[in-house]
């Protein structure tokens, strides 16, 4: 690419980016076509197309087949790292974790925003290690897809031991959470009250299947979450893997600072 074309493309990208981040181009607004941008900025169509491609790669806009390019929804959801698991929410107030994130973000939600498939299968190595069962032992897999305004935000796949959840709402695949309080409430009712959680986060590029499922623009990474939930006696009662569209979440944590001098 010539330096003059690169410079012109950079100027168009910077101008459109400023309009998007300032809100002058609101979410779900259609961008002008590349031909219209080319005429407006006095450049070749290919130069304008390169600027739009760069916006797509940043996750600021996304294309709809046969329907143009649109500004993506902003700002991201607040994903409460610790407060979302507050027992007062799921044990006492019937609020499931993904709904707690919506409430914290000032956004509406409905049960149908979550759909799932449930099946019983042999435990893969990572699942077996997390749940403390032999590799190949039967486990329940509950795979969820969560949307906001019909746009996928993330997937979350949980695994459970059959002796913990057999016959409960966690083995049903109807749309929506597993009843009031969600999965944690079910475990609580089973005498397996969640007491502490291990969570690991990692960023990576999506697989082609994940990019399709989450409707990701080219170049957008995902944040992968691994969560293991334990009872007070260290029994693992859930192992979950989540894949989150990176641009659709802001991860928020609040916790007391540990003081090792207070430990015996």
Automatic annotation (TrEMBL):
Q: Which Gene3D superfamilies match?
A: Chorismate lyase-like, Winged helix-like DNA-binding domain superfamily/Winged helix DNA-binding domain
| Keywords on record | DNA-binding, Transcription, Transcription regulation
SMART domains under this entry? HTH_GNTR, UTRA
Among InterPro entries, the record links this protein to:
Bact_HTH_transcr_reg, Chorismate_lyase_/UTRA_dom_sf, Tscrpt_reg_HTH_GntR, UTRA, WH-like_DNA-bd_sf, WH_DNA-bd_sf
Q: Which Pfam families match?
A: GntR (PF00392), UTRA (PF07702)
What GO molecular functions are on record for this protein?
DNA binding; DNA-binding transcription factor activity
Annotated GO biological process: negative regulation of DNA-templated transcription
Q: Which residues form the HTH gntR-type domain?
A: 6-74
Q: From which domain of life does this come?
A: Bacteria
Q: Does the keyword DNA-binding apply?
A: yes
- What protein does this entry describe? GntR family transcriptional regulator
Supply the source organism for this entry: Parafrankia colletiae
């Amino acid at each position: 690419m010539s330096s003059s074309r690169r410079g012109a493309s950079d100027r168009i990208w910077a101008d459109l980016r400023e309009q998007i981040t300032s809100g002058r181009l609101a979410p779900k607004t259609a961008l002008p076509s590349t031909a219209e941008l080319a005429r407006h900025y006095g450049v070749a169509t290919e130069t304008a197309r390169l600027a739009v491609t760069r916006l797509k790669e940043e996750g600021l806009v996304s294309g709809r087949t046969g329907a143009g390019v649109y500004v993506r929804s902003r700002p991201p959801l607040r994903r409460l790292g610790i407060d979302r698991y507050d027992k007062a929410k799921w044990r006492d107030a019937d609020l499931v974790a993904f709904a707690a994130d919506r409430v914290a973000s000032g956004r509406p939600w409905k049960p149908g925003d979550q759909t799932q498939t449930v099946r019983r299968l042999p435990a893969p190595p990572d699942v077996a290690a997390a749940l403390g069962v032999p590799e190949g032992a039967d486990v329940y897999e509950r795979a969820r897809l969560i949307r906001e305004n019909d746009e996928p935000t993330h997937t979350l796949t949980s695994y459970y031991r059959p002796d913990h959840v057999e016959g409960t709402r966690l083995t049903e695949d109807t749309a929506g959470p597993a009843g009031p309080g969600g999965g944690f409430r079910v475990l609580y009712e089973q005498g397996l009250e969640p007491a502490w959680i291990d969570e690991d986060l990692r960023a990576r590029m999506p697989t082609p299947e994940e990019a399709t499922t989450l409707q990701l623009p080219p170049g957008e990474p995902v944040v992968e979450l691994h969560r293991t939930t334990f009872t007070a006696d260290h029994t693992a009662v859930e192992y979950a893997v989540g894949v989150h569209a990176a641009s659709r979440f802001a991860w928020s944590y609040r916790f007391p600072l540990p003081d090792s001098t207070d430990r015996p």
